[in-house]
Amino acid sequence: MxxxxxxxxxxxxxxxxxxxxxRDIVDFIDGGAGAEHTLRANERDFQDLIILPRxxxxxxxxxxxxxxxxxxxxxxxLVAPSGSHRLAHPEGELATxxxxxxxxxxxVISTSSSYPMEEIAAASHGxxxxxxxxxxxRAITRSLIERANVLEFQALCVTVDTPRVGRKDRDLxxxxxxxxxxxxxxxxxxxxxxxxxxxxxxxIASQWDPSVTWHDIEWIRSLTDLPIVLKGILHPDDAxxxxxxxxxxxxxxxxxxxxxxxxSSSIRALGAIVERVDGRVEVYCDGGIRRGTxxxxxxxxxxxxxxxxxxxxxxxxxxxxxxxxxCFEILRDELYAAMTLAGITRVSEIDDRATSWRxx
Amino acid sequence: MxxxxxxxxxxxxxxxxxxxxxRDIVDFIDGGAGAEHTLRANERDFQDLIILPRxxxxxxxxxxxxxxxxxxxxxxxLVAPSGSHRLAHPEGELATxxxxxxxxxxxVISTSSSYPMEEIAAASHGxxxxxxxxxxxRAITRSLIERANVLEFQALCVTVDTPRVGRKDRDLxxxxxxxxxxxxxxxxxxxxxxxxxxxxxxxIASQWDPSVTWHDIEWIRSLTDLPIVLKGILHPDDAxxxxxxxxxxxxxxxxxxxxxxxxSSSIRALGAIVERVDGRVEVYCDGGIRRGTxxxxxxxxxxxxxxxxxxxxxxxxxxxxxxxxxCFEILRDELYAAMTLAGITRVSEIDDRATSWRxx
Amino acid sequence: MxxxxxxxxxxxxxxxxxxxxxRDIVDFIDGGAGAEHTLRANERDFQDLIILPRxxxxxxxxxxxxxxxxxxxxxxxLVAPSGSHRLAHPEGELATxxxxxxxxxxxVISTSSSYPMEEIAAASHGxxxxxxxxxxxRAITRSLIERANVLEFQALCVTVDTPRVGRKDRDLxxxxxxxxxxxxxxxxxxxxxxxxxxxxxxxIASQWDPSVTWHDIEWIRSLTDLPIVLKGILHPDDAxxxxxxxxxxxxxxxxxxxxxxxxSSSIRALGAIVERVDGRVEVYCDGGIRRGTxxxxxxxxxxxxxxxxxxxxxxxxxxxxxxxxxCFEILRDELYAAMTLAGITRVSEIDDRATSWRxx
Amino acid sequence: MxxxxxxxxxxxxxxxxxxxxxRDIVDFIDGGAGAEHTLRANERDFQDLIILPRxxxxxxxxxxxxxxxxxxxxxxxLVAPSGSHRLAHPEGELATxxxxxxxxxxxVISTSSSYPMEEIAAASHGxxxxxxxxxxxRAITRSLIERANVLEFQALCVTVDTPRVGRKDRDLxxxxxxxxxxxxxxxxxxxxxxxxxxxxxxxIASQWDPSVTWHDIEWIRSLTDLPIVLKGILHPDDAxxxxxxxxxxxxxxxxxxxxxxxxSSSIRALGAIVERVDGRVEVYCDGGIRRGTxxxxxxxxxxxxxxxxxxxxxxxxxxxxxxxxxCFEILRDELYAAMTLAGITRVSEIDDRATSWRxx
Lengths: 360, 360, 360, 360
Prior knowledge:
4 copies of one chain form a homotetramer.
Chain A: H1 10-20, H2 23-30, H3 37-44, E1 49-51, E2 66-68, E3 71-73, E4 77-79, H4 92-102, E5 107-109, H5 117-123, E6 128-132, H6 138-150, E7 155-159, H7 169-174, H8 200-207, H9 214-221, E8 228-233, H10 236-244, E9 249-252, H11 266-277, E10 282-286, H12 292-300, E11 305-308, H13 310-342, E12 355-357
Parallel strand pairs in A: 4-11, 5-6, 6-7, 7-8, 8-9, 9-10, 10-11
Antiparallel strand pairs in A: 1-12, 2-3
């Protein structure tokens, strides 16, 4: 698709993707838990944070690069872990990996990927993390971690906010089922039923462990030397516990509002957690990032970087790896513009003086 | 209707019910007083209360059961008293009683039921309260209480917020009249005109007593050993008076916004009353509960349980007792998901640390 | 029109009136200054004031009567002064006077009435005030006052907020002109051009005096023994000056938002003025009153009574004197319901404990 | 067009202009950066500022005139600098100059004008400022300043908020290109490509200097004796630096929200800057001014005058110089009405007692 460069916003990309995908898959990707109040808040609450630009600063050179857990990336936006990329494109996670690498960022591979992590690892040279769901069968869990060790990913990202799946109204109404060809391929050799086709919620209820606690984080730490990032923290007290548990980072997230409606938007939850963590570990944020100005705002509250989930599906649907790359190009160009126009030349300089909650 | 299980939300149930019932009956059931500002606030104000989930807690076992006035129920949601269930289904209150019992909860039978309380009591083995309107003719009032005594209900629920009926715009516009077949059957032997057909407001104005005061609560107490719950408290000072009057509980309620538009939503009124009552009696809440997360939020502010009114009519209209049961199943499943995802395993642990008013 | 009693709200009355009147006259009556932000706020801001009902009070007898400047009226709602009632009905102010008297309230006749004040005075036995605009020609002004003296009205209401007419977008767009048959009949013998047909704004600019100050209020006082009420106060400092000027009352008003868009709604302005006046004179309020609950709320902030303007035009358009009476019957019934359901039996008991600004 | 006088609001003027211009040009003129949140806030936030009118003041004589940098103008509204007026009318800036002069106000000529500044200067006798963008080629920049010196404009207005152009969604979607006939004519003799036809953003990126700092302001000051006004200040700290740099004024502006979405509306930013500047230089404001009441509100917060941009394009599109004049007549008439009805007779008397932020 040679016209990708005329798509100038993620909103535009989403509109095209919606016209290309089946309705029930659009609903699965874009939908949220319950009445979708938090889903909407994830995007809307960014509007309450005002950017305070400065003028007459030399902005001839603007540098978007940063590091995450020591790994250099070209812009402070990562691919959020999300499963089943083949829902949007036959090349699935392989395309995502290539698109992410082409734009110089890090890709967080999901436990529920529709290609095996080894194939995804081989698909590009870009930095990668592996995201872990803890299975009731600890042998399976251990095996996933060991494979991640072997593949020398840059980090292990443990999702802590999903003892069960959320109730997503749209999926209930659609009686959504995964297409047969979409399988979770990290379990090809596990003896597990490898596909969630049929009832995903039932599959997950039977496989994922709802009894995971902080002790399991210790156990996971004992199995790897990779730095660990906990994904799904919304409460400052849990951030404190995370720091105490020896992890390297936390991701402030409500799981794209796919789990529990009524919780805080991630941008509203971010500040108190950054304050509590106080620089002891890296803090990330995902949920509702649709603009370069959203990236700017999250960084101003103390996020080291942000992650995007749904937009990668839109990019995949529109143009595979090229579409994924386009997502990051758009955010890169928008963030570049935002920094230039705010008088800031390095991401490390985007701090709490750069924004203010409305009314200010 | 074998498809009931695909109805995953009360909103969905309502849409179907609206398509099945005559328009003027939909308006009577769903409408509110005046311009319906409070009606909308009853639902909307829940959005201002943010859930604060905790992670990495063992939520393998989640228990929704609780007690109300010492009676165990399977989930903290009761059938709110409401009259004339035959408006929605020929089996009326009999179906409601069976649906409630099947899901293990308590049914508050209305004075204005369209079956006699004795028949309703016999329709199921579930726990039941009897709701009382005080009639000008105290012999009638006394008789109602005595029948409730004989039937050994678990409590007597006295509605205190209805010295007259409210002005409901939709009913005025529709010139709403009860269908002939819907009669208030608790008065079959009373010598009273047994049906409000014709003008309900005029009937009520002639029969219900607008001069009831706290002295009458004393008189009612003298007639029964059942614990008494006062329904319709919105002001903390009235909650204080209720505690002083020796009752066992209060229901924070604006009568489903059917009485006076412009009063507080019940969720906004709840906190101050819980604070004033300070554990001396049980506090309940109704009005605008449409989601398991709404139940969660009301409990976090100190409600022992909540009550739902209109959804039972929707369930009745769609599928009689099965539809009523479906209401409670939906809320049960949603509350179960909410507790699991918030890291809470027992309803008694849902306290004020679990939520915060927006912006927090 | 025998169906008047099925019209249960002023909103309903307005919808019918809009269907009966020419579009440009609807716009003239219902329109406001500028972008109509204040017009909408006049109604909407009432929603921010929450009623706090009390229960278990004996409300068998509810009394809506009160006094205004010592005159007893049956409900605390007056006819606001407004000109040219023949725009809505051939009988114009004569019908208004009869409708107001039939419902036991007071009618404030406008300087710009389309019947002479003498004919209006003779049309009913109800209490009446005369509203005065100060003309550049003081002989005309003096003559108006002297005629009011002769007719022994209960008060003289001097409008102080209109040194010029406002810019009403709708009238500009419609190039609104008064119909030829609508003339301001208080000037039949004045030598003045008696009709504003042609350009009302130009007529007013040439006749009304923009240089009126507090000295003119002194002069007006010297010409009459009637109690004087100043209409159009929004600032507490002006309320203080009013008290100092020896008048008997003030009306908190933004002229139905017909003068200057962007000023406060009247309900938002009321409280500070009541506080400043501190009981030294009577305080009234108009603007946006559409419900009995609005009357209740204004009284709770300290208004002695309220006035309604546009609804009288709607009533006139629908059914002349009967329609005007219907306006007041609706508000009476709604206020009666509101007081009963709030546990209040006399208008003097509606005080600041009865409401609270949201969120409370 | 003899009907101009029936256009009574800028909104009306805009509607007609939209019907006359090509869609992509409408989008270029009216569009804003990003999701246009700030664009909407620029207009909407005025609604949060309430006017506090006073009554019974002699307003027979109301004077709208004021001075800007010592130059008398007939009303406190200037033509904001904006380029390429030939987009809206063949006579472009020549018509704008004539319309502005006819209504007695000052015209700020843009660097990017579609007629040379010399021709514009000759088109009318009204006061004029020249607005400067700093080119990478300092010889070009110096030449622009020297020509402004020769033409004896009243001030040099240096735009400081545009190190690059903003990302305007609508223009990206339209692939907007300037029509061939619209050229930036101040560079006819510069050796520069004289037209931005093709890609404006690329042209600007290659020509305008993103490394301009406060040192360049010093350099510019060294080249002229004209008073300098810095346009595009949103942060009080930058206002402080501006005062220290020796300029004569600052314009609080977000560039009509054409640069960076998510920044404050200008009316919300104004107060803190006025407070910081504390009278040391003149403070102006642009962005979202659509009503005389908006002018009134900006002045109440301390603006000496305001500037309007887009409305001049609407006026040009509808009727050339006459249309531009109509813009200022509308605002003049609306401001006149606002001052009269607020009890204020001179613009210098519009101070912070005249307004209050909602709720007040």
